[in-house]
Amino acid sequence: MESIGVLMACPMNTYLEQELEKRFFLFKFWDFPDKALFLDTHRNTIRAVVGNATAGADGELIDNLPKLEIVSSFSVGLDKIDLAKCREKGIRVTNTPDVLTEDVADLAIGLILAVLRRLCESDRYVRSGKWKKGDYKLTTKFTGKSVGIIGLGRIGMALAKRAEAFSCPISYCTRTKKPSLNYNYYPSVVELASHCQILVVACSLTEETRHIINREVIDALGPKGVLVNIGRGTHVDERELVSALVGGRLGGAGLDVFEHEPEVPEEFLCLENVVLAPHVGSGTMETRKSMGDLVLGNLEAHFLNKPLLTPVV
């Protein structure tokens, strides 16, 4: 399969990049400053695209690759792939579900604890020597807090089980109620936010969920509420979030994703009640290797005419 052209949409995992180079003829899209010239030169060579949460295969790229057969995403999210065009052209699509579920749920709990217990600020307090001048201020407990989850898929369920271990009442909002669960269901995000102290975004990004966290939802969560986003940055209207945090209309936030990554609103950098992470929900060595193996496995299965491991389209 060394002669099969694979386009890697942006820099990703070193292991994945090295394995792609061993097994395929790899093109690193970011190495070519003139993208139009590159596509014009290699458009008939590339049969696969590997993307992730940052860059995938939009309609324009797909139209410029007439030999494209498969898009294998190094991510669960599919918002960077034009799925409709892939279906129209018979292009297969795969992603990396399940293997990152536990890590992302772990990080969500970590962000909640870090915000409520002010762990990052406490660390700075010790390092700066301020502890010698007096004890650190009191913070807020996590155990027993009501947790609302937007999206109760694999990651949402894993998060709910972890939060239950902290004796937290669980509520959720999804498109339809899940009759097998004992958690409280609310048909709208505003209602969910009104009935929880911690609101976690764990749903897929679609046109319907873009800016699902808006001013109304933030105000419903209230000045003691905490927002945690482990979904996509565009789930949250960042301008409204900044306004609420600066104005005291929201108690705090733990954010792993942002609207314009890696750009982050400067206001966040000055707020002590905000914990920021650089989109590392799946960022452990073990999980990123498992994700890479799924990407490679799907590509090899396709080109060997075997069933795909994790087909989406």
TrEMBL record:
Residue ranges of domain D-isomer specific 2-hydroxyacid dehydrogenase NAD-binding in the record: 109-281
Statement: the UniProt record of this protein carries the keyword NADP: yes
Assigned GO CC terms: cytosol
PROSITE patterns the UniProt entry points to: D_2_HYDROXYACID_DH_1
Gene Ontology MF terms: glyoxylate reductase (NADPH) activity; hydroxypyruvate reductase [NAD(P)H] activity; NAD binding
UniProt keyword annotations, A-Z: Glycolate pathway, NAD, NADP, Oxidoreductase, Photorespiration
Name of this chain's protein: Hydroxyphenylpyruvate reductase
